[in-house]
Each structure stands twice: as structure tokens, then as C-alpha cells.
Amino acid sequence: MDKPDSLRAKLTDTFPVLKDHPDKLTIYIIAGSINGQKYSLSHTEKYTMRVLLTEWAAPMQQVTATILSWMQVHQPQKLLQGNIGNESMRYEAEILDNNLADLLYELDITEKVVVKVAANGDVEILAQTEPQPDDY
Questions:
Q1: 70-96 b/e with 16+ CB inside 10 Å = b?
Q2: Does the chain have fewer CB atoms within 10 Å around its N or its C terminus?
Q3: Gyration radius of the chain over CA positions
């Protein structure tokens, strides 16, 4: 899975506090499934990625905008116009006081993985990039 590391990098680059306090950001995967292909090791991974920010002081809208910006590159098909009822991104917030909250985002993620097996048995695993909106 490449996308959790990619989102962690995006959030850390956007919010310098995460460089000083990496324990404020936890990313984990739930409800994963694999859709295999007959006669191939290539597959599609589908999972829910949970992103937890603890004792967060920045406005939630900044985090939401950052995650949406990441999704435009890494999950653009989830954001296509006309997807009525699109709920591929959900959140919860626990307000700790006037200045702090714990934020939990859930993102529905799909990753396509191409697996090539050479004649000598060597295996090459390639995560596929997502088509961009201009490709649709």
C-alpha cells in the first residue's frame, strides 16, 4: 500500500507541527479486501483508511482541504462531479476544549497493483498511479 505513506507525507508537509510531533498523526487501515485476477498475481486493494489527528489546534477545514487536495491526485474518481451521495470521505470530531479537537477521517481507497513474474521467478510489484481528471 503506497497511499497511506503518500497521505502522511502530504499532511506532514502541510502542517509543520506534525514534523515536531509525529505522534499527533496515526494512519491505519480497516475493512480491507483484495480483488484478485485469474491467472495473474495482479490485484486491486480496497480499504478504508483512517486518519487520526489528536489534540489538533488548526481549523478542521484546513485538514479537510488538504485531504481533498491529496484525493484529487490519488483518488480522483471518488471526487467526480455527478457522484450524487458521494461519501468516500467521512469524519468524526471530539471537541476537547475551545482550542483542541481529536479528528478522525475515514477515506475509501482503491489501489491497483500490477505484479510481474519473470521467467526466473523474480517478482516485480508496481502500484499503479490513478488516472487524472483530464484522462476521463
A1: bbeebbbebeeeeeeeeebbeeeeeee
A2: C
A3: 17
Q: Which amino acid, 70?
A: W
The amino acid that residue 91 corresponds to is Y
15-to-11, 29, 91, 95 alpha-carbon distances in Å? 6, 22, 19, 20
Whole-model pTM? 0.83
| 3-state class percentages of the chain: helix first, strand second, coil last, to nearest 5 | 30, 45, 25
pLDDT tens digits, one per residue of 50-107 = 999 999 998 999 999 999 999 988 888 877 665 555 678 899 999 998 889 999 999 9
Whole-number Å distance between alpha carbons of 59 and 117: 47
Contact by Cβ (8 Å): 105, 70: no
> Which residue type is seen at 83?
N
Please state, rounded to an integer, the average pLDDT across all residues of the chain: 88
